[in-house]
Each structure stands twice: as C-alpha cells, then as structure tokens.
Amino acid sequence: MEKRAGGEGTHTASWEALKQEIIEAAPSLGIDDIGFAAADPFLSLRVRLEQHRAKGYESGFEEPDLDKRTYPALSHEDPQSLIAIAVAYPSKLENAPKSEPGRTRGMMARSAWGRDYHHVLREAMQRLIAFIKERVPWANVVDMVDTGVLSDRAVAHRAGIGFQGKNCMIISPKYGSWIYLGELITNIPFAPDQEVQEDCGDCTRCIDACPTGALVGPGELNAQRCVSFLTQTKGLLTEEFMMKIGNRLYGCDTCQIVCPKNKGKHWPHHDQLQPDPEKAKPLLLPLLDLSNRQFKEQFGETAAAWRGRGPIQRNAVIALGNFKDEAALPKLIEVLGSDPRPVMRGTAAWSIGRIGGSAAEEALLAAQTLEQDEEVLERISLALSEVREGRRPRPAKGDPSRRGRASEPDVRLGGSEAGAGADEVAQGEAGAGADEVAQGEAGAGADEVAQGEAGSGADEVAPTQALRAAAPPAPALLVAEPLVYDEMQSPIGPLVLTASGSGLCRVDFGTFDDVSAKLTLWAKRWFGRGAEIVRRPDSIKPYKKQLFEYLTGRREGFDLPLDLRGTPFQVEVWRALGQIGYGEKVSYKHIAEAVGRPTAVRAVGGANNRNPLPLILPCHRVVGTNGKLVGYAGGLDIKEKLLAIEERVLNSRI
Questions:
Q1: Mean pLDDT, range 88-103, rounded to an integer
Q2: d(CA 391, CA 301)
C-alpha cells in the first residue's frame, strides 16, 4: 500500500481490505475478537471520571492524569484509529481440589489462572503489530493493556467488542464478560465499527450480589469497597471487609458469576490461560511459610504476583479465620507471636478470635503482654472481646456432645455465614453452588478479570451477601460524626440507648458505667477506631419516649429509624425478630425457617444473643422448643416481665 502524505492519497478501499485481512488473521494471532474505533477524545468518559474522583471512588491504581486517560493524542503523535482486542479466558476450574478440615484452601481470581494475561495480551498485540507493519511498513502503532493510560473498556465499547454492563464489565454477545482487553493506537485511518446495542435491561443481579455494596449504581463502582481491590491492598482491613472476603486470595468474580449473560460460557482454548488447580485453589497453611523467593517461584508467572506475597498471605490468614478451622490455630498463634509484619499479626489476632476457645484466649492474652504496635494491640483487644462474649469453647474430641458429628468440622466448609458462633461459614454466591467463592473485578489492576467458580462445584467459603442496612462503611470513609447516648430509668431497670446519625443502634441493660467498656469496643468494631460516644439527651429523647410507652403497656410497636450493625446473617435474623407479633412466642427453629435456614438453629441462637436492640427487635419473644424461657441478655427475670406486660395488654382487650 502506498504511503500516505498528511492523510491524503490513501484509498479507503485499501484500508478496508487491510481491515478485513486483520479480522481474518486475528484468531491465528491469538486474538478472539477485534474491533476498530475512531481515535477521538473520550469526552463523556472524562466527565464520569471527574465525578468518580470527586466521590472518592478511585482505587488509586489508575493512571492519575485524566487527560491521558481520555485523549489518545497524548499517547500517539498522529492518532487516526483505535483497535481493540479481546482474548477469552476460562470461567470454570476443572478437577478443583476440595477444602477439608485441616487442609482448607483459598481461591485465586481467574485473572491469576494460568500465565499472567498482561504477557499473553502483549504478545498477541505484538504479533498483530508485526502483521500490520508487514503490509504497511510506515505504520506507527502504540499498544496498551490495562496498565496503559487509556480505558480498555471505553475503547472496547466504542470499537464494538461489547456493551458496558451494570457491573462495569464489557460484555461481549459471544464471550460474555470472560474476556481480557487490550488496545492499539494507530496512524492508519481504519473505518470504525458499530457499537453493540445490547444492554442489561432490568437485570440488577450483579448490584444485588456485590458482597460489599461496591456497585453503587448501574455502571458505577466504588473501588474502595470492592473486594477485588481490597484483596490487593497491603494494610489492615476492617471487620466488615475481612468477613466478606471469605477465602478469596486475589480478586473477586461475584458480579460476573451471577450475570445471566455469562451463563454457560467457558473458554478453555488458550493453553497459556489454563489454570493449575493447586495454584488456583492453593492450600492456605503452606502459603504462610513462603519466603519472597518461594512465592515468586510458585506464583511469579501469574497476575496475582504483582503486589508481592504480603496481601496474599494476609488474605490467607483472613480465610483461615473465616473457615474457623481449629487445625489452623497453632500456625495463627505463631504468626501472632513472631511475624515481623504488624499487618500479619493484627490479622492473625482477628482470625484467632473468630476460631475462639480457651486456647485462642490464652494466645491472645500472651500476645497482648508483648505486643508494641498500637493497631495490633487494638485488634488483640477486639479479638479477646469476641472470644469472651460470643464464642463458646468447643467440646473436646470424644465428648458426647460431638457424637453424630465426628466428621463435621466446626465450620461447614462452604456453608452460609452465620457470624454468631454457629458452625457455618460464609454465604454461597447466588447461582454459584454451595461451596463457591467468587470474585469480581474492581477495576483495581486488571481491567476485566475476576474470579470465583461459576457452578463448578469448587468448595469455598463464599462471602456474606451485602445487606445494605447491615454493612457499615469502612472507617476510612466515615464522616466525623459521634455516636450519641443517654441513660433511661425504666420499669425494668436502667437502660442505655445509643444512636448514630442514621438511627438507634443499641439498647443496653444497665447504667452507662456498667456497659461503657463493651460499648466502646463495639463502636470501634463497627464505626472505626476514631468513633466517639457522647451524651446527648435531646437526641435520644424520641427513642426514650417510645420505649417508655412500650414498657408501660401503651405501645405495641415501634416507629423508629434503626441503624443495624452486624454481619449480614445477624441482620437477617434481627429483622426476622422484628416480625414476631406482639405477645407471640416463637422458637429458634421458627426464626431459622423464617430466614430460609431451617437447619441453622444454633446460628440463629448466636445471632439472637447478639441482638443490639432488645425490646425494639423483640428477642424476648423467642423461647425454647419446649416453650420454656431460655437465656436473655437482661436476665430471665426481665424476659418474664416483658412477656407479662404484653400478656396483660392482650388480656385487657378481652
């Protein structure tokens, strides 16, 4: 083809012929789909990026210069067209190894299955560049993967690879969202392709399933809350996020797994991207012994290695805590006592608290006397509170209470998150199978990739589902607003009422002096380290009024704003408590059935015991299966008084 001069003298038919040659050659170059687009600035993208930044939704991994992200001319001296490529990757792990007690496993994102996709895409694009230059020697081509400055998704959308879904992914009509993306800027005026007109319709499954509520709206992601981003950070994580990470070691695929557009789509045809099952689902305990060199030898060729071993090992410690496997306790105690990294020690303290029992308490107390780091000491204190308040020591092997459960670990691996001392861990992904841990790309590093099993039967600890009212914001994102409280003298004794700016969040039996230590630990756990608790009687007055009316038989229900802080399972149980009728008595089994977990009676009992709003959410109406009164935070005498008040009011109607 003749060399153009200033863009003139080029025959459109010649460029169209070259374009068709490229399309036909793409599969032989290792490219599954290819599209062409104009190299005009991405002006609408620029507006969205500015809004995204203003809201604090960026991950920090992106190119900071918004002009470079939206103007191809800043990356190429004569941009005439863009070429987007897509390489499809596998969505299922064949012959996935299983987690077992003492041999629990973590899950790597699909982006870490097989060889690092950055290398795979760059090599494919280099072959494409060579193909073009063989035909147009003067061609000037710049290639990028997701570490480049342009938005892969914006280019792919404009080039007709697919449409942008509500989960922010590019969804190809043929390949779904299981595609890696790359792009080239060229000085050849290729004719642009048409954008894909398909869309998500009314479907919001990805938004509904996001474990942390990071998908704040259709096509809008708060990367600071995205599990994929969180697994790649290097610091201590909050209680909320650690519980929702489950056993993910890198990335998150939840929003892709639940997407109907991905149903039945699995692309195993690229040998380089095929996973090694032992690397895709590695044993957790051995990960903690890897040196830097050993980590690079084992995982260095995968995309998960880019942040080093630190985040992976921290996430392994989190996973061990979520599995609650007692076999991991000796190793976690070793990490707590001797790892030089405060992040590892603080995370180990949390996991030890999750496992619980007398050995855990002894280890935490021993570490507390030696620890110097303030944040780690705080984690140890919270873990001790967890062990003492809610975790009953488990029966020893051979104890009659374990009969019939000899092969059952304390955690039902891959079960549903109970979070309240029950022997179930973490909630299965919607449509992903009971034992699955999924992961969804947060735009944090990889542009498309994500992970989790899509119905392959891999046995994982999956994340708790996001219940918007239950999920506290990360402390780093909190507005500096104190919690307010006041004491109340009532017919059943003194009460302490605590509220946030969103509503009443705790009712405690006793005086403030009685409950202040417990209340402070709870506030740090759910509202962040800087949470203040200040006395403001006027703010609490509306709550006191309704409670007093209830306790004197003049009110049967409450009309109050509530701010529930707990695990998603706990909140689900607490909401079910709120549905128990005035004067009615139900069993724990009834509540378990009401939340769709008929076999999780122990889990319901644990959540019931942690109800932060007794009286408002009437756990006093829950009795044993034989109708007898069972434990109550305020004591059985108060439980009897409450039931008597309700019975007297109902009898007065007769």
A1: 91
A2: 41
Sign of the Cα torsion 242, 247, 253, 254 reads negative
CA 512 to chain centre: 35
The per-residue b/e assignment along 153-178, b for 16 or more CB within 10 angstroms, e otherwise, is bbbbbbbbbbbbbbbbbbbbeebbbb
Are 321 and 426 within 8 A, CB to CB? no
- Give pLDDT tens digits for 110-146: 988 999 999 999 999 999 999 999 999 999 999 999 8
* pLDDT mean over 92-109: 91
Residue 24: phi, psi to the nearest 5? Answer: -70, -30
Across the range 50-65, mean pLDDT stands at 89
Question: What whole-number distance in Å separates Cα of residue 63 and Cα of residue 280?
Answer: 29
Burial class (CB in 10 A: 0-12, 13-18, 19+), 139: middle
Q: In CATH, what is the architecture of 475-651?
A: Orthogonal Bundle (1.10)
Beta-carbon contacts of residue 376 (< 8 Å; ≥ 6 apart) = 342, 345, 346, 349
Residue 311: strand, helix, or coil: helix
pTM above 0.70, yes or no: no
Structure confidence at residue 314 (pLDDT): 97
pLDDT of residue 1: 52
pLDDT range class, residue 524, cuts 50, 70, 90: confident
Average of per-residue pLDDT values in the chain? 83
**C-alpha Rg value of the chain to the nearest Å:** 28
Output 482 or 495, whichever has higher pLDDT. 495
CA–CA separation, 600 and 427 (whole Å): 12
Tell me how far apart the alpha carbons of residues 650 and 654 are, in angstroms, rounded to a whole number: 7
Closest to 115 measured CA to CA, from 288, 280, 321, 256: 280
SS3 257: helix
What pLDDT, in 10s, does the model give residues 147-159?
789 999 999 999 9
Distance, C-alpha 490 to centroid of its chain: 41
**pLDDT at site 514:** 86
What positions carry a catalytic annotation? 146
The CB density around residue 464, as the number of other CB atoms within 10 Å, is 29
Please, where in the chain does CATH 1.10.10.10 lie? 475-651
Q: Are 443 and 223 in contact (CB under 8 A)?
A: yes
Do 390 and 610 meet the contact criterion of CB atoms below 8 Å apart?
Answer: yes
Helix axes 374-390, 342-355, angle to 10 degrees: 0
- Cα 341 from Cα 390, distance rounded (Å): 28
Strands 81-88 and 33-37: antiparallel
| Strand ranges in 461-528 using DSSP code E only, listed in sequence order | 483-490, 493-500, 503-509
Which contiguous run of DSSP H or E holds residue 71? none
Helices (H) and strands (E) in the chain, counts: 23, 18
